[in-house]
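Figure 6 in text form: structure in, sequence out.
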């Protein structure tokens, strides 16, 4: 094929126009195998096809992903065959939209809108918009701040298992869980990038993913159902958690993760080296790294184990400390299979402390003041003061702009407020 297909120029045209639907593309975030992603802002004040709201206010920011069409020169086939290939890839791209649109979980980005952007070159470029996750990837976090501690690892495991449980319950598998695809926000982590997600046990032509995170069953040179089963996600989570704890991939198996598959398979069969971990964390990670998929359990079952392992005071724990001692806690919406309303707003204002009490050094909370706080991972977050923490009078309650759900109000010591006036 010598003539260039209009899809290539159409994509370039859309990128030059910085527009997809009503979304204005503002910053390129990266390019992958399936698409190129941009930060975007809603550029039309009228109501959209999908009502987008966050805490009752219009949400005008998102991530927009544009499909990258293949280069015809890479496929020396007749025009009709290339058109069939292109149609197949468009359908694959749309699958990611369907995956996100079918899920409603606080640890998975919200799906907003999808469409095809027409271009003068003659091909309509597929695109979709999802919730913009403000924060830092787990990969960047370890590079900047070092390994996570025990409670941080358990909380990370909880959030990822909740996301996977929702995904697997929908009959889908992520297939690319790794530190780069985990984003950290105040008080939670989010699973992103569903470009490889597929139906569970649906055999595909080949194995995609990231070297170092392939499972034993994916390294045996035989493509079969179990290479795309939910247990694959659990193994990749185990590798991710081990890496987040400070164990580099070569040390995890004491073998080169990028070396010959046969050598790595033999090392995996001998078992992961988790001796440096504390027992409570090791008991979570070790089963996930089992050589046999059936021994890894299910996301829902491992999630319950993690909840039981968390300290009673944790909001994710299956038992919380109250005035009457530890009691079983009702799981928050969206966890363990429960439905979670999108963009859930915080509870009624009456559940928050009033501006008049309690007092701190004779002053009251500067309710409504915008402040910047530093969380325990060392990340800076913008938020609005909503009161004083009644359980810790030296702390202020800050509602974050960039998170959704009932957990977007967090308690911070005054020493962690680095900009703004939390008291008046």
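Output sequence:
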């Amino acid at each position: 094929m010598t003539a260039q297909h209009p899809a290539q120029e159409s994509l370039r045209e859309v990128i030059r126009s910085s527009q997809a639907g009503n979304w204005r593309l503002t910053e390129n975030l990266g390019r992958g195998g399936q698409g190129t992603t941009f930060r975007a802002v809603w550029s039309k004040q009228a109501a959209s096809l999908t009502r987008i709201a966050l805490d009752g206010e219009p949400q005008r920011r998102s991530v927009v992903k544009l499909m990258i069409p293949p280069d015809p020169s890479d496929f020396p086939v007749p025009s009709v065959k290339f058109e069939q290939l292109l149609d197949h890839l468009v359908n694959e791209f749309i699958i990611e939209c369907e995956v996100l649109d079918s899920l409603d979980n606080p640890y998975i980005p919200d799906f907003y809108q999808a469409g095809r952007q027409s271009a003068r070159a003659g091909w309509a470029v597929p695109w979709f918009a999802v919730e913009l996750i403000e924060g830092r990837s787990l990969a960047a976090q370890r590079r900047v701040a070092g390994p996570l501690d025990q409670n941080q690892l358990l909380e990370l495991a909880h959030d990822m298992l909740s996301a996977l449980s929702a995904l697997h319950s929908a009959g889908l598998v992520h297939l690319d869980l790794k530190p780069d695809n985990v984003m950290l926000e105040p008080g939670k982590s989010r699973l992103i990038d569903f470009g490889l997600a597929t139906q569970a046990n649906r055999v595909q032509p080949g194995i995609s993913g990231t070297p170092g995170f392939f499972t034993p069953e994916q390294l045996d040179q035989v493509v079969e159902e179990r290479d795309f089963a939910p247990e694959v996600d659990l193994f990749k989570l185990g590798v991710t958690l081990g890496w987040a704890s400070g164990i580099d991939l070569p040390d995890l198996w004491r073998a080169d993760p990028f070396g010959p598959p046969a050598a790595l398979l033999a090392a995996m069969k001998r078992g992961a080296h988790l001796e440096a971990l504390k027992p409570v964390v090791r008991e979570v990670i070790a089963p996930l790294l089992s050589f046999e998929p059936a021994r890894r359990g299910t996301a829902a079952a491992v999630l319950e184990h993690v909840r039981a392992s968390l300290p009673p005071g944790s909001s994710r724990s299956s038992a919380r400390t109250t005035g009457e001692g530890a009691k079983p806690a009702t799981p928050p919406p969206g966890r363990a299979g429960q439905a979670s309303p999108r963009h859930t707003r915080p509870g009624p204002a009456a559940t928050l402390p009033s501006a008049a009490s309690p007092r701190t050094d004779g002053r009251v909370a500067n309710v409504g003041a915008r402040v910047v706080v530093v969380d325990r991972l060392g990340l800076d977050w913008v938020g609005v003061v909503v009161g004083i923490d009644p359980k810790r009078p030296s702390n202020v309650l800050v509602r974050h702009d960039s998170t959704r759900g009932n957990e977007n109000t967090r308690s911070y010591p005054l020493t962690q407020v680095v900009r703004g006036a939390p008291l008046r």
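Caption detail: Residues 46-58, 321-358 have pLDDT under 50 and may be disordered.
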